[in-house]
Write a structure and sequence with these properties.
alpha/beta, Phosphoenolpyruvate Carboxykinase, domain 3, 8-stranded mixed β-sheet, 28 strands
């Protein structure tokens, strides 16, 4: 990013490397401040609000550009003078500030407009001009936020004539800050378009981070293409960033357009951010390009198996239709799973947890199921019941993992993510508030509201846990005398039939409705490579039964109206009783 400030799609980006405002004068004279004020005036003009009518009547015969200039000068005076002193010095401002109630309404509305923007501060390590150089990044963010808050308070105080009695310490600077590095890596032929896009080195979040993407569900499956889609797209490198992620054991370079910055920042709560020594000069296992434009104009969600360069490439084209974090997360996991299949490992859509009971018994439990089947909700039930049953619980994966067979023919489970992307509606009401200090919220006021939060460490997800219980999450059958909360299969063939069928009651996490099926409950790799996965299913299920692993069904009842909370809870209690008998 070369500019000192950019404002696009309700996202404000402040390049501290190009310009760092450390006092009121610098801030008010900056291009960024004037652009924000101009955008605010355009908004209130479009609505023809009372505030705009007041401003227009106070500054007659001024066009919008002149209004921006006049208001900025008024703000500058109000940082050092009281209202009456300003009028005395500049009588032309009397119509604007004589009615202090209306002027305060304007200030409050303008300040609220600023705070509703997604605000990002950026430092580029190797490009220092007149901006931020040696100052600590986090300290600079804090000082910048404090300065904006002080500016807002100072102007209001000088208008009112007295200081407020209640101060609310709201974050007024950047919602998130990033330090960028320019990184050289052996870019293969066909990927030159990604050259010189900066890598995110460090992230700083003001939590709770709340984003409002335009979409709230994901639609369809990712499809394979047989030619490199980067050959037909265009990328403005000044508008792009790369998040170097550790996805399980793999290294991923996730490139995204600035209009989807919230999704890119959210990655830090889901995938471990790789250290510079882990990616500098190294070719990744997979590359993902999110938000590129191409000639076709249609929305594309595709992947390309680049055999020649031994990489998987994901590509999602620009558009409002893909403005949902599920597209960022699930394509990354699809690329991971495709590589795992090629390497002879079995990717799982599900959850795995190591549970240690209070009586000393322990088990490593895998629950397989597609979106909305009850994987995360079961983990939430485990957590809610932990005080009565559990002495310790470690989450290995919350959404996507992989099975591997070691040299001793034990089946081990590994994770891919350090975080969880869960439905707010399916969490205990108090839990989301307990986790608010480290969480990222997405459309918290809408159906399928989401919460992204860390749940494990990278060390734990790549450790490898021997599987003791391997269960399919059935969310559509009620528990009764015939159907128990926990049922076990007697043969690999019987188990494969249910797991491969992948039935579930759709919960609104995608655009699907009713009872639906997906191959092996995993449309993120296995469904696209069914022939190869069938071979793996036979091998791994036979090995599970051979090693004495209990393979069965856990009925979560999550898709049954009225059972969304009690279903996973009752299933968890049955599971705990089973582990006690280990």
């Amino acid at each position: 990013m070369k500019k000192e400030f950019s404002l696009s799609n309700e996202k404000a980006m402040m390049n501290f490397t190009a310009k760092y405002c450390d006092n009121f004068e610098n801030l008010l004279s900056s291009d960024g401040f004037r652009r924000v004020l101009d955008a605010y005036l355009s908004k209130v003009e479009k609505r023809n609000s009372n505030i705009y009518k007041y401003l227009q009547s106070s500054m007659k015969e001024l066009d919008k550009e002149e209004m921006v200039e006049s208001l900025t000068r008024a703000f500058e005076l109000l940082t050092i003078l009281k209202k009456d002193e300003v009028v005395k010095l500049r009588p032309s401002y009397e119509p604007l500030i004589s009615d202090k109630d209306k002027f305060i309404d304007f200030i409050e509305d303008f300040y609220a407009f600023w705070r509703r923007l997604e605000r990002y501060t950026i430092v580029q390590n190797n490009r220092v001009t007149e901006g931020l150089a040696s100052v600590s990044f986090t300290d600079a963010n804090n000082r910048f936020s404090k300065m904006i808050l002080e500016l807002y308070r100072k102007i209001e105080e000088n208008i009112l004539g007295y200081a407020p009695k209640v101060y609310r310490q709201l974050p007024a600077g950047g919602n998130a800050g990033v330090i960028l590095n320019n990184v050289l890596w052996p870019i293969p032929k066909g990927y030159e378009i990604l050259e010189d896009i900066p890598f995110i080195d460090t992230l700083s979040l003001e939590t709770p981070f709340i984003a409002y993407p335009k979409k709230n569900t994901r639609d369809g499956m990712f499809k394979e293409t047989y030619s490199n889609p980067l050959r037909y797209c265009s990328i403005n490198k000044d508008h792009w960033f790369c998040y170097p992620a550790k996805v399980g054991e793999l290294l991923a370079y996730i490139y995204f357009h600035r209009d989807f910055m919230a999704h890119g920042v959210t990655l830090c709560n889901l995938f471990e951010l790789a250290r510079e020594e882990e990616y500098r000069g190294k070719k990744p296992d997979m590359v993902y390009v999110f938000g590129a434009r191409d000639e076709s104009g249609e929305v594309k969600t595709i992947f390309y198996d680049d055999v020649e360069n031994d990489m998987m490439l994901g590509y999602v084209s620009y558009g409002d239709a893909i403005d949902y974090f599920g597209y960022m997360k699930k394509m990354t996991l699809t690329l991971h799973n495709l590589i795992m299949i090629k390497r002879g490992y079995l990717p799982l859509h599900g959850a795995m947890v190591n549970i240690v009971m209070k009586n000393g018994k322990s088990a490593n439990v895998v629950i397989v199921g597609d979106s909305g089947a009850g994987k995360s909700e079961s983990l939430e039930a485990f957590r809610g019941l932990s005080e009565n049953y559990i002495s310790d619980m470690t989450i290995v994966f919350d959404d996507m993992g992989v099975l591997k067979i070691n040299e001793q023919d034990d089946v081990l489970g590994y994770g891919t993510e350090i975080g969880a992307f869960v439905r707010l509606d399916d969490l205990d009401q108090g839990y989301a508030f307990k986790e608010i200090d480290r969480s990222i919220f997405m459309n918290p006021d809408k159906t399928n509201a989401r919460l992204v939060m860390p749940v494990s460490t990278y060390k734990e997800i790549v450790r490898g846990y021997k599987v003791d219980l391997f269960l399919y999450a059935n969310n559509y059958e009620e528990v009764n005398e015939t159907n128990k909360a926990l049922d076990y299969f007697s043969s690999p063939e019987e188990a494969i039939k249910v797991f491969r069928n992948g039935a579930r009651m759709a919960k609104g996490t995608t655009t699907e409705e009713g009872l639906v099926k997906s191959y092996f409950a995993n449309p993120f790799g296995p469904a696209q490579k069914q022939k190869e996965t069938d071979v793996l299913l036979d091998r791994y299920f036979n090995e599970l039964f051979k090693r004495g692993v209990k393979v069965g069904v856990i009925r979560t009842c999550l898709g049954i109206p009225g059972k969304e909370k009690d279903g996973p809870k009752n299933a968890a209690i049955e599971l705990f009783e089973e582990i006690k008998r280990f």
